[in-house]
Design brief:
about 5% strand; mainly alpha; 6 helices
Length: about 200
């Protein structure tokens, strides 16, 4: 975990113009400025940008799936891509709504319901996906430098602001890996690599 010490401060796009530009550019420009510890600032800003890239990686994986494949479960204990999306979005909306003023586990959240599929179309899945990410990045864009040393709670457990954000970064990266893995298993013969392709020896 990145510690929070002294007068280190950060500022995510504080003007509406910057917020709009950030959203329009797929959140790639979320950054930290005016931080007393530039090393910490770079690490944190890099983490946020990495999550934005992970978001797009998952979308590119889902683009390679048919609508039917989004709902495929390998067995009764497995989660489909649609279920993973529903769970991630539910977590994001709960954690990032009123982030600074209420516990991250909202009383109206039904976590168990997130693992029951009630989607029928790709559009429903992707609308849910976008709702979660928009909530997440919108909240980040509204944080002020004076918020840095505040404490928030998740399931009643206190976290520094940075710790809370890092906790969610880990969670989302974990599930994005699952989405990519499932998509690749379902499209093994036609898979278009999302990273650097493996070198293949010719005979």
């Amino acid at each position: 975990m990145i510690g929070v010490q002294g007068a280190a401060v950060f500022d995510f796009f504080v003007t509406q113009q910057e917020i709009t530009a950030s959203m329009a550019n797929q959140r790639d420009d979320i950054s930290l400025r005016g931080c007393a510890n530039e090393h910490r600032s770079r690490i944190f800003a890099g983490g946020v940008r990495a999550l934005s890239r992970h978001e797009k990686t998952a979308e590119r994986a889902m683009d390679q799936c048919s609508e039917e494949q989004l709902f495929h479960c390998f067995h009764e204990e497995a989660n489909s891509i649609a279920i993973i999306v529903k769970h991630m979005s539910g977590n994001m909306v709960s954690r990032w709504t009123d982030f600074l003023s209420s516990d991250g586990e909202k009383p109206n959240r039904n976590r168990d319901d997130e693992f029951i599929n009630d989607f029928h179309t790709r559009k429903e899945v992707m609308d849910c996906w976008e709702k979660g990410w928009s909530t997440f990045f919108q909240t980040l864009s509204e944080l002020q430098e004076t918020d840095l040393l505040r404490t928030v709670t998740i399931r009643g457990e206190p976290h520094s602001l940075i710790e809370a954000i890092e906790r969610q970064m880990y969670h989302y990266s974990y599930h994005i890996g699952q989405i990519v893995y499932v998509a690749k298993q379902l499209n093994a013969n036609n898979w278009k690599t999302l990273t650097i392709p493996r070198s293949r020896k010719t005979t």
